[in-house]
Design goal:
Length: about 675
Amino acid sequence: MNTLQMMPTSIWALASATIIMIVLITLVLNLYYRKRLQAIGPLNTDLGDLVNQKQQLETDIDSIRDWIASQNDEILRLKAEREEQEITRAELLRLEQEASQKEEDNKKLRDEVGALENQRHLLVQSMEKVEGEKTELKKEIQQLDKDKEKALEELKEAEKSLVKAKEKAEEQLKDIEKRIEDTRKAEAELLGTIEKAEQQIQDFNNALNVIKGDILAAQKNLKELEQQIDSKERDIKDLDRTQRSKEREVESLQDRKIDLDARVETLSDKLKTIGQMPKEAFDSLNQPVFLKSENVRAKASEADGLKKLYQVTADSGYELPERLQNAFHTSLKASDISCLTVMAGVSGTGKSAFPKLYAQSMGIHFLPLAVEPRWDSPHDLFGFLNYMENRFESTTLGRSLIQFNDSPFAGEHADMQDQLLIVLLDEMNLARIEYYFSEFLSKLEMRRNIDINHEADYRMVSTEIYSGGREDKELGFERSDPLFLYAGRNVLFVGTMNEDETTQSLSDKVIDRANVLYFGKPDRLKNQKQTIVPYDNWAPISFENWQSWYREPESNNIPEFETVDTLLNDINSTLAEFGRPFGWRTYRAIMTYIANHPAVTLNGADAMQPLSDQIAMRVMPKLRGLDLAEYESVFTRLRGQIQQINDDSLNDAFIKASQSAQGFFDWRGIKWEH
């Protein structure tokens, strides 16, 4: 394409018009100067020359006009060609744009094909994993069906055994009644035999008198009569012995009848007392677990307690970051709304030992409970009623709750209601937490919404272990009220859980009501010696002193409240797109944690690190298992919101969870060192 074709139409028209104007101006000037020359020339100029000049000029003008016309035609032709070139160029540009668009579309299609290939690969892996899980689930279902069938068979066997035992007892009772009746018949028959024997003796005496008369009458038969007399006397002696034996047998049967009647009466009384419990049946609950200490501290400093905690932990040989220790401390302070503090992660990292060190440092009583796989109801926590022995089989937790009951309805044995207790559920997920702890966890959560001075509210948040008994004057039973176990805010619950194939995972209900601290693997393993720190000058802290450390989650107790509030609401909006938003309880729990964190209350720092702790403990676990490819844009937006917190530990943990090889968000907690 040459330069002329590349010139725009407007420039071309302007150039043509300029040339025409230059030519016209030249002609005009030429005429002007010619006239001026004629005016100043000699007056005797030959008229013929003027005429010739005029003709010449007219000829020139006609030539110029022809030239202008030809130039105009050329301009029109060039203009038409230019317009045609512009149309061609526009068409070419359109074709180039379409080609570029097609290229971009092809590139997008190639990218989409690549992404689809990746998704197909991930889906194949997911399907393989799902098939594996499906196979495992089928095996588990088959095993559960077998267990169910076995349990049903055992239940049927137990029912059969119960029916057989009942039938056997009824048969024994009928047999006893029959034997009693037989004994009565035997007694009647024996009495008849005795009467017959007495009648025989009387008849024999009469016969003896006749014989004696006959002896007097007939001496010759004396010897025979004496022999007969000896024989009869022997018979009489035998009858006497038989009578005495029968009398002894009757007496034995009568004694046995008395024993059987007493046993039947005892069994009848016991049958009537089923469901009744005397007050002394619950005496085991009143046996103290902890010895009362009179030296209770009422003015302990939170800063001193934390300082001692750091020192005791280090002296014991455990390398636990102060940030982790502060998070545990703050979680217990916020236990009114987050009723459970869970330490999860790698086994052997100090999860079970640290709560004891904390209790030792702060002046709190400590009760460890080892959860067993067979636990399936709250009875495993508190105890159960033994109706056969007419007593309550209590546990150490049940007895401890009696001692630490700080309600107005506490009994005389609540001698430690002004002190604190930490209850450790060690390896709490060996059994299904929902089976033995879920109901109790709901009652712990309801404590903040009730009036503890109102008995109906007190019963609502307490665990009923005996529904009470009816009055029975005939059996000597007085009417008894229901019996409740209450855990006040001075009882703190902590749990540990190892995440392996032998354990159960936490449900959303538990996670939503707990602070979950993840213990990762140590960066470097060391042969570190564990030591026992003695209880030097140990004294319990008062519950009132502990409460004085607590701060309400009000705006004036939370630095940069508006920033934190806005960021939390933005994160919650993003979680809603995942289908995993949180509600008012979680929001208030996060704010309570921030307001009570030592970095805020003692050091005057901003709220970002406590907020980061709560995002790690409460928000991120909600996203475990989500498909990274499906929610890629949402995860990107969430990452930007998390980066506003400016915490390296949280950012690193989020990136690591987002780069899972399985294609799912795999949250493993943060590293507490930062």
